[in-house]
Design a protein that fits this description.
This protein is of the alpha+beta class. It is 28% helix and 22% strand. It has helices at 11-24, 83-88, 113-129, and strands at residues 28-34, 44-46, 52-54, 72-81, 97-101. The strands form 2 sheets. A 3-stranded mixed β-sheet has the order 4-1-5. Strand 2 (44-46) and strand 3 (52-54) form a beta hairpin. The longest helix is centred in the C-terminal third of the chain and has 17 residues, at 113-129. The chain starts with 10 loop residues before the first helix and ends with a helix.
């Protein structure tokens, strides 16, 4: 599955996703990129009164962002799925799901007008670099 909202993907990203599905025997393989914000460190939820709490509290919260566990954002760069998994699953992560990591510059998803303008900028940089 190649959603049109990720136009900066590469052929290599797609081939790695399919290759990992075949090699691993997983139910699904999809793309991720290292998260820009880390829920263990700098992401918060607001309660009904507007008070902030860390999304994923830890017994010992890291003092530095660099010491927080690495987390990943799901992307729409590529999904490779076993056909029978689609028919038997009720939820995205209910089976054996693996991920391939893609660089942030290819993981842009167009969800807003600003994302669209940024994608245009990134594509113009690609053309200039050719």
């Amino acid at each position: 599955c190649l959603p049109p909202t990720s136009p900066l993907r590469s052929v290599e990203d797609v081939e790695r996703c399919i290759g990992e599905l075949v090699a691993s025997g997983a139910d699904m393989v999809y793309s991720v990129t290292e998260a820009g914000c880390n829920p263990y460190y700098n992401m918060v939820e607001l309660d009904a009164e507007g008070y902030a709490q860390v999304v994923m509290p830890q017994e010992r919260r890291p003092y530095r962002r660099q010491d927080a566990p690495v987390v990943y954002d799901s992307t729409t760069v590529a999904y490779a799925v076993q056909p029978e998994y689609v028919f038997r699953t009720q939820a995205f992560f209910s089976g054996r799901v693996k991920a391939i990591e893609v660089p942030r510059e290819r993981a842009l998803e167009i969800d807003t007008e600003m994302d669209f303008h940024f994608a245009e900028f990134m594509m113009s940089r690609r053309r200039e670099g050719e």
